[in-house]
Amino acid sequence: MNAVTLLNQKKTVYPDSDGMPMADNTLQFRWIVTIQGGLDAVFANDPNVFIAGDLLWYPVKEEPEIRQAPDVMAAFGRPKGYRGSYRQWEEDGVAPQCVWEVLSPGNRPGQMIRKFQFYETYGVEEYYIYDPDDGELLGWIREGEKLKEIPQMQGWTSPRLKVRMEVIDGDLVLTGPDGRPFASYVELAEQRNRAEKEKHEAELKLEKLRDQVRSLGGKPEL
Question: How far apart are CA 52 and CA 55, in angstroms?
Fold first, then answer.
């Protein structure tokens, strides 16, 4: 067996990592996790919506250099579950329909242009960019073969995600179909603690009321 034959038999490698960090700073990281986690919650009961953050997407078989790792992506029609990377030919040819990028000071215009061209070329339907430093939100939606900029993002609702978007005092506010805004892990923990405290206070009030009924010789039925 000659060297050419051996080379042709080598299996194509699709790395699970591009060696780049998920985020350049804590602010960017927080927003990536908040968007990814919020979308996961929105589609928690739909087994055929796959949500991922910072996952390498390979759109073309045998072309591992053609790849991109969106900060957050959503693929409708694909089952949930573990993936080392998103290999489109193993996903019934389904490209992620919705993609998010959260900017950091390290992003360069050339880099963002290449990302845009990639998403436009390989079938993304909705593309959103949020800059947490400037409080700017941009979006594009597919029309035919092109991604066309959405002229007014304030109050925009994603056709696919059914998530409403707006920027308030520089902060991105994403509201799910149930009317609940996305929240960071810390905010969710605070909400849970507040709910537990309110429940405990309500139980104490109820027990106090029962004691008052008992002191009057009655039988509490509360």
Answer: 6
